[in-house]
Amino acid sequence: MTLFADLLSTVFERRYRPWGPVRRDSRPVTALVADLMGGAGEVTGAGLARQIIDRYGEMDDDAKLDFFRHIATNLAIVPSALRAALDAYEAEGQSKATYRAVMAASEPPRQELIRRLNQVPGATKSLVRMRADLLRLARGDEALQALDLDFRHLFASWFNRGFLVLRRISWESPADILEKIIAYEAVHAIDSWDDLRRRLQPKDRRCFAFFHPAMPDEPLIFVEVALTRGIAGSVQALLSENREVLLAQDADTAVFYSISNCQAGLAGISFGNMLIKQVAADLAAELPGLKTFITLSPIPGFTSWLSHQHPQASKPDGETLRALAAHYLAEAKRPDGMPLDPVARFHLGNGAQLHDVHLNADTSPNGVRQSLGVMVNYHYDLKKVAENHERFATSQTVAMSSGFRSLSANATKLLTEEA
């Protein structure tokens, strides 16, 4: 896998390398953009791209907004050109020439700008950071949000699964990668190097991440896995300093207890579904004794939802709380029919099924705040994930175990009686 990643990195880095220092151009960055889009030769164009990226990196937020608004306004689709191309396509019928004209007119020039900026080494990482800025600064601005669609369209191709490399992160991984795992952990904070070691070094622990050859030192997303006997119902127990370590070959269950996206600039580019399924398949091949692949997941919207239910249901006993959590996950929906809870949308969309609910499963301040300490298991049955995914995608059908269904039904009765 390392050799494969190195080969891909070599391919991605065989782009323009300047023969000498690039003289800084003092003109406004908009002039550099115009030159780059004006058909500059390969060497000149790559030098311009390098300068634009470097100049962007020196900008404050106001200058970045001006830059984004310039390319959003001046490198947008030209409606008259698109109408003319469509008219010719309709009048003359589909041909190579008319179809090419429609394609050219329907693609905004700013997509080509992003491609040309990406021709120099290290540019992909810079463009991902550029999109993170755009997402942060574009709130409420329709033109900038439209520009983001161009970034997202290109990134969906550049970060296609075929380019991603799955690597195991271990205690022996490079220190800079380990530091980023600590920094990017978004579910259960890693408090120290000792805490990280407890998650990576023992024989019953695994961590896997996707990398892209153009960003070989930056994990895109990673998942932490505990190998256990039986299904886990407490994240504090999983992470306990005094827990008993299990031999990997003695485990029968793989518990995915944390999954973290690392790059804000890749928001909306889905990797998690591919990561969990790939890791589950790889672990099943490595450890034939593993029979169950399951998560121990947070329920981030539960407390907020519960606060809007009938007052008598706001201070439930333990079993009622479990039932209400099951009902929330299975029945609380957005206007579009999708689950209200974002983690539920993710796992159910991946083909998992709701399996069980646990009290006092996350007693951290964050766990209590977002879900009163309740957590849920999503079961990844490798024989059923495709069917579950298809049913969820086409009809929003939520897959769940019989026990989970009974829990949810109990809460439905409670809420109906109290309404």
Description:
This protein has 2 domains: about 15-160, Butyryl-CoA Dehydrogenase, subunit A, domain 3 (Up-down Bundle), CATH 1.20.140.90; about 165-419, Malonyl-CoA decarboxylase, catalytic domain (Aminopeptidase, 3-Layer(aba) Sandwich), CATH 3.40.630. About 50% of the residues lie in helices and about 10% in strands. It has helices spanning about 1-15, 30-35, 40-55, 60-75, 80-90, 95-105, 110-115, 125-135, 140-160, 175-185, 195-200, 235-240, 270-285, 300-305, 320-330, 340-350, 365-370, 385-395, 400-419, and strands at about 165-170, 205-210, 220-230, 255-260, 290-295, 355-360, 375-380. Helix 3 (about 40-55) crosses helix 8, helix 5 (about 80-90) packs antiparallel against helix 6 and helix 15 packs across helix 19 (about 400-419). The longest helix is centred in the middle third of the chain and has 17 residues, at about 140-160. The chain is globular and about 65 Å long.
The first-level CATH class name of the largest domain: Alpha Beta
- Major beta-sheet overview: 5 strands, mixed
Going by CATH, the homologous superfamily of the largest domain would be Malonyl-CoA decarboxylase, catalytic domain
Q: What is the radius of gyration computed over CA atoms, rounded to a whole number of angstroms?
A: 25 Å
Q: Give start-end ranges of low-pLDDT stretches.
A: 10-16
CATH topology of the largest domain: Aminopeptidase
Domain count: the total is 2
Number of helices: 19
**Helix fraction?**
40-55%
Number of strands: 7
Please report the distance between the alpha carbons of the first and last residues.
57 Å
